[in-house]
């Protein structure tokens, strides 16, 4: 087997930034990955369509392996690569195809989030208090559209350890003029009686309607269900995982233990194991609605949308690399 081509340095840099969470959020990850493939295509010196595609597939593999749970990443790669038609056309024609696919994908991301925000805003009425978890640009879009339409909201924002992504949410909601109360993660159940909605994003949604999101979401959903608080998941269709249509399991990413405890403190405590899963799975029975750019769906109906968008199966062009 021949050695795969070396990806462009921009691809390597983008992959590093995604892995280190300098680029975070499903839409941002998808956008960065698509852009990196665009750079790979634009600056490729391949002299045949086969070599051009081999380099693109190697770049896609490098990007794909950074965040195993964020399904927006393979969905973005798949979208860009699906227009290459298995080697037809000369290098310049393929280069232009990639350029068009990247531009179309990036424009679609912005439009999809705007449509989703308008749909999700309809869930809220004047005076509602919304609890959030982690940081989701799709969730923020729902609140932003509601505020822009004149609805007054307040937010209870979980800080979301160990990386405190809730601080980003708190800052962005304050910029929208939303009063914010920041709470530690362990206080969520205590504040659940004070909120009208639990609004979260998703990193992946399975065919059965299960929601894979930042660790802590599943327990939070149980608490919300116990208190009768509706649970809304805001997620563009790039969060739907077509691999689960054929029964594939979702991989839960395990992050560096030093996000939880530094090496010095760990040494002081003594011999302990440290687990740092980045995500958990919320079963569909705990979710009231999944809001996408295509409309609102009860979780058990998401499979219909998934089949409409992806068919009944997919192939991964980079897997042969």
Give a structural overview:
The protein is an alpha/beta fold and 321 residues long. It folds into two domains: 9-114, Up-down Bundle (Four Helix Bundle (Hemerythrin (Met), subunit A)); 116-310, Rossmann fold (3-Layer(aba) Sandwich). It has helices at residues 9-19, 26-42, 49-64, 72-81, 91-121, 137-148, 166-175, 188-191, 217-227, 263-269, 302-310; strands spanning 129-132, 154-158, 180-183, 197-200, 204-205, 211-214, 231-234, 279-282, 289-292, 295-297. The strands form two sheets. A seven-stranded mixed β-sheet has the order 3-2-1-4-7-9-10. Strands 5-6-8 form a three-stranded antiparallel β-sheet, covered by helices on one side. The chain is globular and about 65 Å long. It comes from Natronomonas salsuginis. Belongs to the eIF-2B alpha/beta/delta subunits family. R15P isomerase subfamily. Keywords: Carbohydrate metabolism, Isomerase. GO terms for molecular function: ribose 1,5-bisphosphate isomerase activity; S-methyl-5-thioribose-1-phosphate isomerase activity.
Instruction: Name the poorly predicted regions.
Output: none
Q: What is the CATH architecture annotation of the largest domain?
A: 3-Layer(aba) Sandwich
Give the proportion of residues in helices: 40-55%
* Terminus-to-terminus distance: 10 Å
Which helices and strands occur, and which strands form pairs?
Layout (H helix, E strand, L loop, with lengths): L8 H11 L6 H17 L6 H16 L7 H10 L9 H31 L7 E4 L4 H12 L5 E5 L7 H10 L4 E4 L4 H4 L5 E4 L3 E2 L5 E4 L2 H11 L3 E4 L28 H7 L9 E4 L6 E4 L2 E3 L4 H9 L11
Parallel strand pairs: 1-2, 1-4, 2-3, 4-7, 7-9
Antiparallel strand pairs: 5-6, 6-8, 9-10
């Amino acid at each position: 087997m021949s050695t795969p081509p070396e990806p462009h340095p921009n691809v390597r840099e983008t992959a590093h930034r995604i892995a280190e969470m300098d680029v975070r959020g499903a839409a941002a990850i998808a956008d960065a990955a698509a852009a990196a493939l665009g750079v790979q295509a634009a600056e490729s010196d391949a002299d045949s369509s086969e070599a051009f595609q081999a380099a693109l597939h190697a770049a896609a593999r490098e990007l794909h392996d950074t965040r195993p749970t964020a399904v927006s990443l393979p969905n973005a790669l798949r979208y860009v690569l699906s227009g290459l038609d298995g080697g037809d056309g000369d290098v310049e024609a393929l280069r232009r195809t990639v350029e068009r696919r990247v531009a179309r994908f990036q424009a679609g991301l912005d439009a999809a989030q705007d449509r989703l925000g308008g749909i999700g805003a309809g869930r809220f009425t004047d005076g509602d208090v919304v609890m959030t978890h982690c940081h989701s640009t799709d969730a923020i879009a729902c609140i932003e559209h509601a505020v822009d339409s004149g609805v007054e909201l307040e937010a209870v924002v979980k800080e979301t350890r160990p990386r405190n992504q809730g601080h980003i949410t708190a800052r962005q909601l304050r910029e929208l003029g939303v009063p914010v109360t920041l709470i530690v993660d362990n206080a969520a159940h205590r504040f659940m009686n004070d909120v009208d909605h639990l609004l979260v994003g998703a990193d992946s949604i399975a065919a059965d309607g299960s929601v894979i999101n930042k660790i802590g979401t599943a327990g939070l959903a149980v608490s919300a269900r116990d208190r009768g608080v509706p649970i809304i998941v805001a997620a563009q269709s790039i969060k739907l995982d077509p691999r689960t249509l054929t029964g594939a399991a979702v991989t839960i990413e395990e992050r560096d233990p030093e996000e939880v405890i530094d090496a010095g403190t760990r040494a002081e405590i003594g011999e302990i194991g440290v687990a740092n899963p980045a995500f958990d799975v919320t079963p569909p029975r705990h979710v009231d609605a999944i809001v996408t750019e295509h409309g609102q769906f009860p979780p058990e109906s998401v499979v219909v949308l998934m089949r409409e968008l992806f068919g009944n199966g997919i192939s991964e062009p980079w897997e042969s690399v």
